[in-house]
């Protein structure tokens, strides 16, 4: 396969995924192999929901719709334009995937295959139903992928490089276990938002998407706010309110009740509105249904603090704070070139 063939296969996969959107599931005409895959994939979506209570139909379809848009020919071509794929020596690349949000490892999967390598996938048990069907679809639209995609539930063996994502604890294990292989090892990261008090109602409402999408379980979810001294949270809470139905979902409600009880028994100061708590805390990783906040004196000092803690931060949501900032409401709409932890996966894959 050449690069154009690989791109074309993923474009067809994007077309297939275009049938699954936040608006609903609608079978289309002229989708290759639809008779073979549409009903099967629909069943796998239901299985994924039953297996993992955090994977609601809404969140799964949100993910699939985003990937459908990303896999358009224009987006794939523009993403890959700056790389040279002429001298790729095909290797077997293992991917150890996380399972915190649906298809969280798909970008690595795409990157390995689009670069001309073989992939050996070890999925999380929390997210094991969707990707194997998409891999089969790729093999049907482009037979050149047959034999280049392997899934394993056992020990990783016979591979040349690895991309592994996990917690800070598992990352230490990964670093030891894979020390003799070219590797990209990802640890815990969270995202932060910087507020000035001058945000519009629309910006704060958009921020709610960054906070609540996927229940806050993703590394691109905002779990920490930086606010100026004397910041009034009234406008913030008002903008969050349209997410209040989230408290009717059992897993979220259980976490809310538990964390609220812990804070009350520990006599921590916190503010809450019946479905979200905010607590002053210097940590980046907040529990479900909680957002931490911290006051800042001035933006120059805050920039130094952000730079010092860059290894803990995935996205900085702001308006006019830095060149790398993400606009309000856009953390869960990454572009193909928005690499996790800022590590260029394609560049890594072209050097192995």
From TrEMBL:
Keywords, ordered alphabetically: NADP
Keyword presence, Methyltransferase: no
Signal peptide bounds: none
Origin: domain of life: Bacteria
GO BP terms: bioluminescence
Gene Ontology MF, one: acyl-CoA dehydrogenase activity
Protein name: Acyl-CoA reductase
Source species of the chain: Oceanihabitans sediminis
Species lineage: Bacteria, Pseudomonadati, Bacteroidota, Flavobacteriia, Flavobacteriales
